[in-house]
């Protein structure tokens, strides 16, 4: 409790985990008014960076060992969805394995990898947890971990199918592991709320609570958590995607919310406007037009700088920047 | 293995729980060849047994205190779905409360009863557990219990939405509580497999395993567990419903399977034919035509008699009979 | 205002128009608790009363010249939807023309009768107005009148397509003609609210106001006005149909509401439960199973008796009874 | 041409094939006005006539060896669709094999029987041809034959998937075998016209011509040929089914047409009204409510009597009667 | 009548209203053959001209007080649809208010602005009428006016929901106000004809007539009126949009028609080909790909020049040019 | 048989027909690794090459008389689908007729051209056969031929509707003409397998065999044959398209297979990855975004060079290159 008070006082974003290397950064362009701005180097990872890939997007990036490591969604040229490991010195230029990650798994039925997509990586306690949409008689939330980005281990799926966008919190809540997810159906789900669940052991999950529902406009069809929530003095900073259904399909935009620190299923603030929507050619044209889809954020506590990694048009990997304190102010000033 | 052999030797269905009173029974009609036969008194509970009800069906009945008790789905005249308590001396003539059950629940958000339907009751350890389709931002599996059918307590929902047909096993498996369920979507779900999950404490659930998928014919669209599985020397006897989609809608029939006793997600036998399908006027005409939907079975170990309670046309409650050993033989002889 | 008060004092239903002949009547059956009860002679009009008919249902009946007259939906054996004239001495035994009504219409394009269904008849000022679902580049509200049930005249359609269930009020409101209707689409519309509109001259319509929306349960998909509203001291008594979508299609039930006398778009009371739902064989089996659809009500001011004509399963014509004061009390006691 | 004239002169229906035994017959009921009337013994074959059957319907019956033989659609209790052989002395009481027909087929891939339904049988030249909806990577038209209703042989499928309701003409047209069929899709097809095709050898088919399209009302969604066309002086008498889509599903009714004798893709007359629609309990209640589906007709040239076999509610087999000359007159008098 | 004759003689387009300022103009590009050509400055209004906007498109522009004024659809960053006022000296460079228009409305229920989109402005008699798609329990036609583009007043909605693309004629027809509209449903309507309606007072509407239906090709799914019709000697010049449904969604193109001057529901000519279709990047890429949607046209009587304002990809505002007499000739030469 | 052995030995692609002129060619770009590479001149035919065209794509090109000739899909500005003739000296620069081809056809009903699209041209025996999707009461396979690309003759449609992508083999198989096709439905078909059929005379077709089904990924929704198969020592080289359904519509990619030479319904190898997918602006933006659709391939036996013509975004015509032996190796190395 006292820690909570302190955090509120300082209002600094805290990043749990290893020391941050030199975070990618570009200043806000002259005259640009948005709270988030795109990298001029976008897309930072083209669709064909590795020979096996049809597309590389929806990346999950963390600081690791003085550099950066990540798990990337690389759809191959069969258009099968796979998870690949990447390493980078600067967070911009990436070295991605041409072959997908192979997870060790005790249970062979569970570990029979059918497909994996939209990974998130979260440093928690002593290791890097990976969650992803995992194919097991339908999409559900796969859970794995690595200590070193060399060996990867797969645990039990968190939930029954059908689920997507499972995102771990970077610390335990009420003594439990905590995850956001978006229950789905078997196809291009036309609905979707964010729920919260807890687990004492990352095996059994319960205490499910509803967090947020679609509310119209850019977030009228469905919503899903993006990067792992960032703990701040104002609550958990959650960047999330929302979907609008036009007559020509889905449009994926990005918003943000502040969740209660101890009861994260309680939404304190939530942006009515989007903070990023598909407007550039690399976001509007590609395998799935009109998609911006954030999966990771690097945050530098000292400067408050945040670098948000997001997929463009389900085809390429992009980068956008913000300042955490500005973003928090924006959320509070533009809340539903 | 040797235990399994022993069980096969005895081939007696085992019922955990209180002593069975006089189980409802009617002999197989002359010349009737099916393994299951209907009660001549069907529908044993008419739609209007209590003034508040539009329909009474999909009943969950157990032996209790030398008589029978049950939890009934009673849709009221708003067509809202509610759970009502019932008592009976003979399992045929029921006294059902005109008002729905009110559950005690510690968490007010969880206990805010929106709707409940298709209950199952399962005696386990020291009390009667009730599972049902519970409205919490969509359908999911509500869990509650009672010791006395007077006070009812509600626990955490077992799973995230969207789920239906949650059915507990009557004893722990591998030291855990175990449940079958059928993940769904938000509407008249057009798909549905049966999954298995475990919990150490009825709060947190995991170790989810796929059990059975639809396979065409009467069970081609979706399937869901019916009464609580009955432990037999041949495995868990699971009576389940399957759905066929005709050009004029869903047709709900009944089949049966034998699941491995220790690894119940492994199907040992499963009927290719249905064992009951909607053929009588009270099954074919009503609020939802062409539905037979089993939710409870009483089983007398001494005689092997089984009385299956099922809903007819989502309108009335019906009864059918079988002999467990005959049913087991039928499953093995007519397996997929 | 004072008139309103007076009406509330008397609480007598008022019927505008000619003297009522001997209204059809049967007392409530012994032990029956519902506020509405069915005629023992149901269906009072079989599907094949006239040789040309496939079905006769959704009738519009009024007192006329010491007897009764009506306009009936008679689908012919092409399954084309037509309006036929009927006469009856007692409201039970009907003489229906084998040929459909032919309307005089000044405008040939407007009067080119494609199809007409679900008529209502309303005595207003000096004549009997007929409204129906009229085919003019899609379904909309046709308007016509007759003085004598011999010559029929057709006016302009009230609204643009797509609309159904247009029902006139039996007197002017605020000096204007007033109509309830249910905007629709081109098919088996899966939505539908009741709106109110006014016209100075039955040609031009405006001042459209929203009256009621679906609210779940039996009235969760769409709702539509039934017989012409009956003026009572408690407001306009509106009997209406509501539709629930089961996995096997639509179920049409009947409810009732009290609308403000001077601002009829304001709902004062509205039944949460239905007052009639399809439960008999002639309501559950037919061309469209599970339909009760009221289109007319005869009301005797002296006794408060009301006879409600409704279609059964889109196939036959049925009759049900109530007492207006009891119905009003029921609406107020069971309001949403 | 002169032959055509002669036929018109005689106006006798001609039946190619063996001598007709005692055709089933019941006189038109007193006061009944329809051109077709039902057997008082309906349903003449109950759903459970043989132990393996869930339902027996959509029968294909021909005179054979002084008695009657037929191929029946018997859905088994898996709800798999199978073809069974039947024999009868009087056309009313049938002896149906409990096991399905096994066809000899040279090509094992073609002869790998997945499912078969809605058979028709047609005597042509020297044998009895059977056509049915055959599962080969989707529904298409299977073709087989028998000389003796003991050995059955399967030929090549007539067409590419997806097709249903393939019906042979009982004699060659323009020196070719001729077939009507209704191209479909993979599911509960919501469209469907009747086409005509020719073949020199029952292996290769071409010269495809459009015959009839849906036209609204009872035949507004799709239409399909029923029994093999009957050659008459007025043209080929084609009894066919038509489908209307109500808000609660498909309704199958029966109509009739007269096709040009030498250019059977030219429709000379076609009934605007149906001649039979589902109105009895055994037609309106069953596995698929509201279906009458004709597949065979016996016709006695001497008397002009015709016995039409049709399926009721996709569950039972029924019989209806007409007089061919009356039916022809009806078609001409009630043509579109 | 004599005026009509005169108009036909001169065949000059007439613009009712204030004197036209310097109409935007660019000559047809060298070698370009189409009857309409795009501005080289397209898109003339970018999506982010004002800070609050996600997009600015589907503009309604009129000459006003020696300059130009307009009402613009500005979707904000919530993706809520709003109407904003704009002013311009040259019709190219616009000054648009950052805040939406606030209408005065006597009736608070009617004036409770939920959303407004796709406005049209029409000078008529003494003021500028605005019509738009107005949210009132579904989309319908909102009607308002302004004298000065400072104060805006809202009248009754013209029609019951569900309707879109309501467009006033710039003079009374037969003594009545006249409007074209396109009845719709609640979603991304997959059908849509243009109808004509009249009103004596802009409050009550009737005399509804069908004008045009979709006819395949680029105008195969639905059609809707664009700018207010322009009166010419050849009839009302109506520029309209048409929609084709590809496997990847709707494609909006533009066509034109000539309507009878006195009976505008009678179509004299209508282009079989489109006159503009989405072909540039700013029309093919954006919030809704493949949309050109005209809402306004400026026309200079002296020169016959016409400047058409249209939305591109539901994102930006574009301009195209034509010469009215050429366009009329094109319509007549390429009529359906 | 010995011929087959010989072919396998040489492994040279054989082209039946006239001598090949100078085949279009560009070397593989430096560093490009794919087995197919795009022309730097793409799109080689813009959408507006001829005045009447909205778009020109899905071309069918063959060597002819020392130059090249082709049949092109030219959608006109009504968006009607038409077939146009083209001639070219180099295969790159095309002279396309502004008016569509007019076929001579003996049967006027068959020859009543409604629409034609996605043509293929195949030299066989003594003439150039054209197959296309032909409108005859729905899409089916039209068949025609020309000797000189001046006079065009139309034969009987090959199959009943509904079918698309009919592609002839360039020589007889088993003494019969042979065709691949993809049975479809009436709309934007969401399924589709490739089937094989034979004909002795191009009039009657039969011996239908299933060839390939969708298998997930880029070819998960439906597949269809592309250019006429090319005979090689390794089997028939079939380039085909496959469709993936994203949340924003269909994505058309290209793969390849090797079919057995004598039993072409037997697939020997089939690429798991695509060999071309929509990635450039002219493939991703246009009338139908995200489409590459091959219809023709020129192959030079001497060099093994192949030039593949394909449509981009259903708007323009593009060219890609490969070496046949490399492509064959790729297919074998990357087979499912």
Helix content of chain A: under 10%
Q: Looking across the biggest beta sheet of chain A, what order are the strands in? A: 6-10-9-8-7
CA-atom Rg of chain A in angstroms: 18 Å
What's the number of helices of chain A?
Answer: 4
Q: Kindly report how far apart the N and C termini of chain A lie.
A: 27 Å
Rough shape of chain A? globular
Give the low-confidence spans of chain A.
1-18
Given helix and strand content, the structural type of chain A is mainly beta
Main sheet specs of chain A: 5 strands, mixed
Quaternary status of these chains?
homohexamer
Question: Could you state the order of secondary-structure elements of chain A as H and E?
Answer: HEEEEEEHEEEEEEEEEEEEEHEEEH
Strand content of chain A: over 45%
Largest interface, per-chain counts?
Answer: A-B, 35 and 35 residues
How many individual β-strands of chain A?
22
Residue-averaged pLDDT of chain A: 94
């Amino acid at each position: 409790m006292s820690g909570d008070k302190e955090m509120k006082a300082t209002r600094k974003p805290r990043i749990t985990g290893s020391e941050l290397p030199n975070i990618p950064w570009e200043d806000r362009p002259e005259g640009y008014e948005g709270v988030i701005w795109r990298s001029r180097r976008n897309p930072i990872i083209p669709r064909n960076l590795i020979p096996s890939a049809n597309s590389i997007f929806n990346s999950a990036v963390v600081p690791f060992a003085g550099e950066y490591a990540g798990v990337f969604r690389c759809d191959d040229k069969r258009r099968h969805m796979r998870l690949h490991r990447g390493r980078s010195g600067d967070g911009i230029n990436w070295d991605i394995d041409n072959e997908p990650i192979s997870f060790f798994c005790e249970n062979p039925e569970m570990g029979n990898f059918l497909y994996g997509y939209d990974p998130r990586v979260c440093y928690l306690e002593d290791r890097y947890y990976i969650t992803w949409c995992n194919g097991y008689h339908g999409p559900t939330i796969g859970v794995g971990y690595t200590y070193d980005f060399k060996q990867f281990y797969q645990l039990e799926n968190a939930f029954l199918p059908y689920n997507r966008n499972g995102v771990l919190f970077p610390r335990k809540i009420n003594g439990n592991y905590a995850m956001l997810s978006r229950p789905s159906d078997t196809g291009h789900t036309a609905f979707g709320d964010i729920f919260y669940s807890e687990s004492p052991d990352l095996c059994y999950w319960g205490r499910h609570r509803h967090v947020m529902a679609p509310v119209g406009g850019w977030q009228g069809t469905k919503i899903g958590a993006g990067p792992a929530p960032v703990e701040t003095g104002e609550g958990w900073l959650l960047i999330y995607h929302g979907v609008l259904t036009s007559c020509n399909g889905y449009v994926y935009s990005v918003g943000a919310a502040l969740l209660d620190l101890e009861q994260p299923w309680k939404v304190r603030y939530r942006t009515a406007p989007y903070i990023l929507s598909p407007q550039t050619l690399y976001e509007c044209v590609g395998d799935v037009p009109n998609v911006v889809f954030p999966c990771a954020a690097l945050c530098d506590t000292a400067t408050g700088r945040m670098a948000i990694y997001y997929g463009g048009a389900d085809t390429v990997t992009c980068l956008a920047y913000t300042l955490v304190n500005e973003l928090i102010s924006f959320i509070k000033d533009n809340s539903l």
